[in-house]
Amino acid sequence: MVRLIQVYAMSAVPERQVDIELAEIGQSVIRLIGNTPLIKLRRISRQVWPVDIYAKAEWYNPGGSVKDRAALNMIRQGEKTGQLTRDKIILDATSGNTGVAYAMIGAALGYRVRLVMPENVGEFIKLKARAFGADIVASDAVESSDGAIRKARELAKNHPGRYFYPDQYNNDANWLAHYHGTGQEILRQTHGRVTHFYAGLGTSGTFTGVGRRLKEYNRNIQLFSVQPDSALHGIEGLKHLESAMVPGIYDPDLADQNIGVDTEEAQNAVKRVAKEEGLFIGISSGAVLAAALQKAAEVRDGIFVVIFPDGGARYSDQRFWE
Ligand SMILES: Cc1ncc(COP(=O)(O)O)c(C=O)c1O
């Protein structure tokens, strides 16, 4: 820091400009959100030649997941519309990653954050959210993310004026973060040559935003949404839409195909990517890859892009690793 100031002083930059430069460095955690790498799965691609599979490595976001993008856009939108003011507490229901994202951004921007999560969400996520200063309200584990949504709604309704409730399941700023960010990045990183796109459905923000951007660019790009194949599943972050509350932002007409994946199949793909590519990915990433691999065996050409929403660390105590 001291050296920086000296360098600027030596180059005779006016003092005010030095302050601005330093203030920008202070915001760097927010600035690190987005622009994640697109990694070619080289060994796996060789096995499905001539298809090439590329993964958008979303754990490179500073909060560790794709949800940093949506959380930041919803907070910025709240600020712009005046719904989020300094006296408000940011409140939302989350299955984990969005909670960490709100907590991290809240810490960086100086907002208090309250998260409603099913009580069986892993310790790693809770510890991270609490480290950023958020407090956690537990909802019934059996009711999964739907129970958390109901509880968050109740809190927001009973205390109007206390909370800023972005409601990620029904907020356009969620999918728009991916329309302007993730989708645009994929077009740039593939030089517009992507032919097949795969993403899991949680709030559906990632799939909806990227999907709309890609279809707008080229209607022939095939979109595949991925979800667990049954109501009882272990693919955290994804919803089995037939049995769950359907998010308001979900667009049922967007996907060319909707693919159901079994939990064990997703876990096997996670292990395979670790051994064959040296990437430690989360279970929903495994589910998305498993869906893409089914298709890659059928088609004879293409550039596939799959979203890997988070890394494997938060799932490292799960039994499938034993
Ligand atoms: C691990 C994981 N995968 C996938 C998703 C789905 O992302 P989206 O909410 O954009 O549909 C989430 C969302 O929380 C997640 O946490």
Structural summary, described in words:
This protein is about 45% helix and about 15% strand. The chain is α/β, with parallel strands linked by helices. The protein has two domains: about 180 residues, Rossmann fold; about 100 residues, 3-Layer(aba) Sandwich (Rossmann fold), CATH 3.40.50. The chain has a six-stranded mixed sheet with strand order 1-2-10-7-8-9. A four-stranded parallel sheet has the order 5-4-3-6. Helix 10 links the parallel strand 7 and strand 8. The longest helix has 18 residues. The relative contact order is 0.14. It binds pyridoxal-5'-phosphate. Pyridoxal-5'-phosphate (PLP) binds next to helix 6 and helix 10.
Q: What secondary-structure arrangement, pairings included, does this model have?
A:
Blueprint: H1 2-10, H2 15-26, H3 28-31, E1 38-40, H4 42-47, E2 51-57, H5 67-81, E3 89-93, H6 97-109, E4 112-118, H7 123-131, E5 135-139, H8 144-158, E6 163-164, H9 172-189, E7 196-200, H10 205-217, E8 222-228, E9 257-261, H11 263-277, H12 283-296, E10 302-308
Parallel strand pairs: 2-10, 3-4, 3-6, 4-5, 7-8, 7-10, 8-9
Antiparallel strand pairs: 1-2
Helix pairs in contact: 5-6, 5-9, 6-7, 9-10, 11-12
Bound molecules: pyridoxal-5'-phosphate (PLP).
Pyridoxal-5'-phosphate binds at residues 65-67, 95-98, 200-207, 236-238, 282, 284, 309-310.
